[in-house]
Amino acid sequence: MFSLANPLRLLANDVLSCVCMKKASWLTSKDAFYFSKKGENMTHSSKKKLTGLSVFAVSMITITSVDSIRNLPGSATLGAQSVFFFLIAAILFFIPVGLVCAELTTMFPEQGGVYLWGKKAFGENFGFLALWFQFAENLVYYPTLLIFILATLFFPFSQHASNDPKLMFFAINIVFWGVTLLNFLGLKISAIFTEIMGLLGTIIPMLLICGVGLFWFFSKGDMNQITLNLHTIFPVFDGNTLSITFTSVVLSLTGMEIATVYANEVKNPQKSYPKALLIATIFILATLTLGSLAISTVVGPNSSTLNLGIMQFFTEFFAVIHMPFMTVVIAICIVLGGLASLNNWIIAPLKGLSSSAKDGFFSARFSRENKNKAPVYMLISQGIVVSALSSIFIFIPSVNEGMWLLNILMTQLYMIMYIAIFISFIAVRYKYPTLARPFKVPGGNVGAWIIAIFGLLASSGTILISFKPDPSVGISSPYMFIIALFIGLFVFSIPALVAIIVRQKNISNQL
Questions:
Q1: Per-residue pLDDT for 374 more than 60?
Q2: Overall CATH class of domain 58-510
Q3: What is the maximal distance between C-alpha atoms in the chain?
Q4: Exposure string (b/e) for 269-300, b if CB count within 10 Å is 16 or more?
Q5: What is the pLDDT of residues 38-97, one digit of tens each?
Q6: What is the DSSP letter of 30?
Q7: How far apart are CA 230 and CA 94, in angstroms?
């Protein structure tokens, strides 16, 4: 008799392996020299295990690095138009990022990511700027992720708590400092924490959202909140539509640079990596688009909020099928996935930033690690900055408004990093014309320029358009919103400029 046990066991092993590799991808590719050359480098046996990764494995690494439930409520406000905008964003941004990062990764196989690419193109200062804006983006990301986690946790018990800014401020700090202290124990304990929580709270809920959306659309036609046809898919271009589109959709598609570290580990990368990229792109676009449509269908594009959209969706669904108790179960799963994501990001960027200390951007003392190889001083400094950022919820009357402000600032900082990547890509094409490229963007230099121009236009366009507040979020003062964004960009740029100036002075004094 045929049994599902063995195939399911094999599938579970494959998925778990990819989740474990996902953790490795954070540790190796979050643009860092995560381990020094004094024996802390990846062992030969570890490298051997990763050699010859299958197309499926690399696809799963990419999927788990990019796919995020947290971004669905934002793109759900687009309604049926999300189909059009995800397709355009994929062509202009998502695919160019994947292709460019794959070539740069296979061209410079040593670890270093954004910092290394910028350094090879224009020197250490440019590489540091690119790395810094990636790090700064993470600082802004933490409060928004924590708001999502906490709103999901509180929702089944008290919707009022989910919208209480002061309560959110204190809860953010309690959770963030708790996870920070966990990372004092080192990467091994951190990895175990992530591997246990990651699968249950990421892939399964995402597939469930898509499945519920399809069920609702075809069986609850009279309750659908959107209409799906050619007229509703194609948008009417106005300032309000563009504002929310290029912030929520593009933000949903960021992170491809993380998984490209494994482009070198694929057998025959020139053929296999594009296949893996194609599979991942289709899956990511399908789940993000279907997930956005699902929330729009059940909750309505005008009713979905950034912090509660997911739980509004599941509450409606489980009420219809008379299983309200499942709302608590799914909330716990999503919280576990969110904590795993938070834990992934909390130490990896610091490891990347500490690598720049080797080139004199920070003192070696500041990046000193404890016996568990955790950069304690940097972790504490990061926690202080995140606590300061979370205070925005004390001064802004709406949690939704504060979350949108941080989302926009995070997107702008992230886009600056992507601009640096595309510029570096073109520069190294001409600076190192004979250097081996196991994977190369097709079309020669013409193809490279086309891909880079697409990426630069999408990244810079996103920054410019995102300054216009989205009225559906309920911004209390559009002018103060824009001023706050400019202040945020200025404040986050100052430390990088100071570090570069101090380094240049130190170099001059040594001559």
A1: yes
A2: mainly alpha
A3: 79
A4: beebbbebbebbbebbbebbbbbbbbbbbbbb
A5: 333 434 444 444 446 778 777 777 776 687 787 788 788 778 888 888 888 899 999 999
A6: T
A7: 24
